[in-house]
Fold this protein.
Amino acid sequence: MIIRIVKMNFKPEKVSEFLKIFDESKQLIRDMPGCSHLELLNDKNESNIFFTYSYWKSENDLNNYRNSEVFASVWTKTKALFKAKAEAWSVEQKVIL
């Protein structure tokens, strides 16, 4: 399983627009093959910083999403609202023995 974390820093006046985009697209993303979880987190101290946290069954599933029309549409609208470039990480859970 791949966990994808994306940090997004929005122009403060664009936060409500982003939240509308996320609300309208969250189910489309959740319905993508291989996506088993998607949530939106908001920084405790900076209200214009958000993180998406999603689980993907495989890297191939994540890449298929990233190459999809759903991603292209959502990302184009979202990216226009940024104050700073987004940061993203793909991580895996590891069992510590």
In short: The longest strand covers residues 82-91. The chain has one domain: 2-91. DSSP finds three helices and four strands in the chain.
